[in-house]
Amino acid sequence: MTNTDRLPSELRSPEPGTTALVTGANSGIGLEIAQQLLGHGLTVWIGARVLDKGQQTAAQLGAGARAVQIDVTDAASIAAAVQQVGEVDILVNNAGVNPGRDDISRTSLEQLRSAYETNVFGVISVTQAFLPALRRSAHARVVNVSSGTGSLTWNSGPNPQFDWERVKGGGLAYRSSKTAVNAVTMLTAQALGDDIKVNALAPGLRLTNLIAGMSAGGDPAEAAAGAVRLAFLPDDGPTGALWSWDGTRAPW
């Protein structure tokens, strides 16, 4: 487990043949992560719930990109993806949904189920399924794309990534699911030790299609660079923490 407050400046250069899987990689931050990993010479599997979209994205990204259908809420889909992908060194659990900004007075159980099925149970199911492959890797890394709105510390006071007063109390389903992702990240890292480094990313507010009609947010590529840093941590790098996109430690 880590006690550092900042990611190391020196990252590990990936060996030839390094393979990554990015779920939800046909748009937004996931697409940018895939593109940046490809730029480092990796083979990158573009995980997409709709195969046609994944294939289109892989074709656009070019050499090194492969498409795989994976619905993180469907056990059969995950099992088929494991068989197709085979070996994996880097797993980026990026697929996520935001079912609404409602607070406790209006959030429905359907919203909660939707958020937890994808954002929490999906992360667990995909990680479990690919654990055998990750254990075979000499430098396995798991990156869980979380959210600064899932930090209980930041939720209880000023949040450097969001306008805390504006979002206070809202987004119960999404934000609580990301709090759960943070817990899953920490406990997974504790269970796996230093052999498989497991960290979570707080990407900040980004202009993506996570929220319908979203018109504000920073460049997804900036957040993706934070995920790539976690994917290329040195063997003595940290594990079991939540990190801001800028490489600084974010509080649970």
Explain the layout of strands and helices.
Blueprint: E1 19-22, H1 28-39, E2 43-48, H2 51-61, E3 65-69, H3 75-85, E4 90-93, H4 109-136, E5 140-145, H5 152-155, H6 164-167, H7 172-192, E6 196-202, H8 220-231, E7 242-244, E8 249-250
Parallel strand pairs: 1-2, 1-4, 2-3, 4-5, 5-6, 6-7
Antiparallel strand pairs: 7-8
Helix pairs in contact: 1-8, 3-4, 4-7
What descriptive keywords fit this protein?
single chain, 252 residues, alpha/beta, eight-stranded mixed β-sheet, 8 helices, globular
Overview of this protein structure:
The protein is of the alpha/beta class. The chain contains 8 helices and 8 strands. An 8-stranded mixed beta sheet has the order 3-2-1-4-5-6-7-8, with helices on both faces. Helix 8 links the parallel strand 6 and strand 7. The radius of gyration is 17 Å and the shape is globular. It starts with 18 loop residues before the first strand and ends with a strand. The model has no long low-confidence stretch (mean pLDDT 93).
